[in-house]
Each structure stands twice: as C-alpha cells, then as structure tokens.
From TrEMBL:
The chain crosses the membrane at residues 12-35, 236-258. Residues 259-311 form the HAMP domain. SMART domains: HAMP, HATPase_c, HisKA. The keyword Cell membrane applies. It comes from Billgrantia ethanolica. Its EC number is 2.7.13.3. It is an enzyme of class 2 (transferase). It holds the Pfam family HAMP. This is histidine kinase. Residues 319-534 form the Histidine kinase domain. SUPFAM superfamilies: ATPase domain of HSP90 chaperone/DNA topoisomerase II/histidine kinase, Homodimeric domain of signal transducing histidine kinase.
Amino acid sequence: MQRFLADGSFLRVYLALALALLLTFGLALMGLALVERVRVEQYREQLAEAPLQLLSWRVAALPPHERGNWLTQQSDLLNMRLSLREPDDTDLSWFERRRLDRGRALVKIYDEDSWRLYRQLPHEERILEARLSGLNERQLRGLAQLLGDWLAEVDGEARQRRLEGVTSHALPVQLRDLAPEGLDSHQLSRLREGELVIRLLPGHWALTVHLAVPAADGSRQWLSIGPVSALEPTPISLLLLVLVIMLGVLAAIIYLIVRGVEARLARLELAAGRIASGRLDTRVKVDGGGFIGRVGMAFNAMAAQVQSLLRSQQEMIRAVSHELRTPVARIRFAMQMVEDMTDDPAIHRQLHGIDSDIEELDQLIDEILTYARLDSGLVNGTALERTRVDCRAVAERVIETLAPLHAHLRLALAPGAEVEVQADPRYLQRALQNLVANACRHAQSRVLVRLSLESRLVRLDIEDDGPGVPPGERQSIFKPFARLDDSRTRRSGGYGLGLSIVQKIMAWHGGSVVVDDSQELGGARFSLLLPRVPAGKDRLPPVKPV
C-alpha cells in the first residue's frame, strides 16, 4: 500500500476526479454558451424572416431589368446594401444552402459591424443578400414604410393574404379598421397625417410601429408592427435544467469511476479472504494497467509465492516424516535382535525404554503427517465431506475411548438436548478427542464436556480443573510444537501438535477454537465454535479447501 501511495497512484485517482469535475464544468459552460448562441441566432432569424420575405417578394415581382435600380433605391432607404447573388458566388456552406432551399432566412454575423442576411427568391435559385452594419431606427422605418406601400397596392382579401405572408412569431403584423389604442393625441395626429409612429412599451423592452394604409374607397386602415421585444435573458428554468443535467453528468462520471475502483477492490478483498481461509490457489483477475491492476498483479505474485513456499514446506515435512520411518524401523528391528540375544533383566529394561521412545517417535511422525495433510487442505487425496453430525454422540464416543486411559479422572458429558452440525464426523471427533485428551493431561480430578446452541453457532466446551492457560499464552499454544513450560514433562506428554491440528480442522470447517477460563471447574476451557445447520437443509455441498 505504501508503494502505491509513494508513486502517486492514489493521487492520480483524485486528479482523475478533479479532471472529471473540470470537464463537467467545462461541458456545462459550453452547453450554456451553445444554448445562448442558438437562442440569439433563432431570435435574429425570426426578426429577419418577415423583412427578407417582403424584400424577396418585391424583387421577384419586378422584371429582371428593373431589379437593380429598385435594389439601389431600397439600399439607400434602408441603410443596407441589397444585391442578388448566384448560389455559387456566395461563401455559404452546404447546410446553409439547404436552409435557404427550404425557404428559411439566414443571418451570418462576421463581427459587430458586418452582418449578412440571405433569402432565396421565390421560385428562383438566385439569393437576395443584405449587408448591414447593425440594426437602427432608419431600417425599421424604411421596412415599415415599404410594407405599408406594398399593402396599399391591393385591397380586400389580397391585402389580408399579403399581411398573413409576412407575419411571424417574432414580428407580428396586424391591420385594423380602428385607430391603435394607447397613443396620445399628438401621436394620433401624426399618424393621421401619414407619418410613421414608433411607440416604446415601458417595462417590456419592446416597441411597436404604427402606420396608416389607405384603401381603394378612400378610407384608411391602421397597420401595427410589433410589439418587437428585445432578446430576454436566459430563463431561470433553463439554467436550472442545465445545472441539473450538469450535476447528473458529474454524478454519473464519479459513480462510474468509483464503481469501477470499488468493484476491483472488492475482488481483491474477496481474494484476500479466500487466501486467508486456506484457498491458496485463488487469483485476482487483472483488468487494465492502472494502479489497481498493478496491485492485482502484485497480489497474484504474492499468492503464488506463498503457495509455493507452503507447498515446499509441506512436501519437505511429509518427505522428512516418511524418511524417518525407515531408520526408526531399522532401530526397532535391531533392538528386537539384541533382545533375542540376551536374557539380562537390566538390558531388557533398557530395551523396553528404547521401545517406548520409538513408539513416541512413531506417534510424532503420525502427528506431523496429519498436520501436513490438514495444512495442505487434503485428506487422503479426497475433499472434505460434510454431513449432519450429532455432536452428543461424538462426545460420548470420545469419553468412552479416553475414560479407561484416565481412571483417576471423572470424565462427564453435561446433560442437554441433541446438537447437530454440518461437519466431517471423523475429523470433528479427532478435534474433540485432542481437546479432551489435552484436558485429561492437565486436569486434577474432573473433565467436563458441554454442548450448547447459540444464535448462529454450535458451541462445544471442554473444561478441566487443572492450572488453566495464562492469558498471555492463549494465542501461542495453537502454534505447531508450542507447549507451556509445565507441559514439557513425560508425565503430561504431548508433542505440541494436537492443538494446531484442532485449529486446522476448525478452520477447514469454517469455525474456530478459543480458550479461556472455566467458570465451573476453575481450570481451562477450550471451545469449538461451528456454524449451525441452515434451516431446511439436510446436507451442505462438499467443501474442498484450495
């Protein structure tokens, strides 16, 4: 872990998150700028739609030889440069050409003083181009006057059709028989005299243009253009929507990053737990070449090294134990030959002592081999088979076996109900027998076996009235060949492997073994803790530690 902290790998994760934040913030700003740009372009095109449509209709209605003079006159009137262009003579893109082909207006702004407006003439390929340096009152007055003159050319339904053709959402146009409301007497007087009146709407950032249009019968109608509103700021609802989208994108990015890191770390944690439980062939799937990928490769290398070392150790222990049997057998054979060659009682006593030592050596070799088999997770080359086992019956068999060997002690099984677990009966009995035998070696007069059920565990307690186990030694006694000082005598016996074998058996079954003080007898209390049988299940699948 320090290595990955030292080389800045975790720092790169935080930098990635910071970059994700900056990227999301940048995307949000770009989104707002794009939305604002689209709004401005749409607003300009909507404003330009009706005037350009009016101009294109007026030009299309003229004979080709009169168009140039008319465009020159209107250019002076409107303070803009009007011209007709061939499609190939413009610098428009393919998408802009398609927009014009669909009868839409196009506004291009190169800078603040260079605007260009385009619209295709009706039923022609030629394009009307208007160049101007910005919007001003002169253009507004000229376009309104041009519209009024165009409407004055016709009357009745034809005038209404022309009016509907130039009306748009951004530039409403109305024609009324009654004078407009909201004008003062001076404005009405000017309007009746044929002047154009521009009215500002206070508080709305909008204006309306009014103009009198004469009719064929001598009467007048009143033309109202507008209100033309200025572009309003971006609505708060739109800003909130963009903010929500930004936060959603940010949350999704962070979630994906954290989820990927968490999932890969969870696989590392699971693999570490499996190796801790003895499944040394567990490996982590390495995805990518990031710092977690390097952690996974280092983890796999560590697991392979640990597995190799333990396998070598186990093979060496088994090899040494098997090799010891040959010289032990030769010593025993030679001892029997010496015993047959003499009748001296003193020599026979010595030979009997040697035979006892050889027997102890044979038992030690058996214990070492058993420990090595359990440590490697194999028992006679087969997987551990767990079945439903009656713990009370197992305890009774252990007591019946050991009671004749310890006649000076009183071995008893506490009364209680039947207790069942999922376990290998042979090795569960071996673990219980090791603990009861250990209690018999240290007890003064009594050994008690007690079975009990807890919420999720089955508990097997073995208590004695001996000296107990000091608190400082309660972890070390489960190490191989570890014994307390007062047990290193021929009277107490033992090789320091019995408790280690019990611990291996319990770990193999998914349980544990603990030691504390006996409250009833005053000595030591060893406890086997095993998982309870799941409700509704008679048998669990076989488990093979790897």
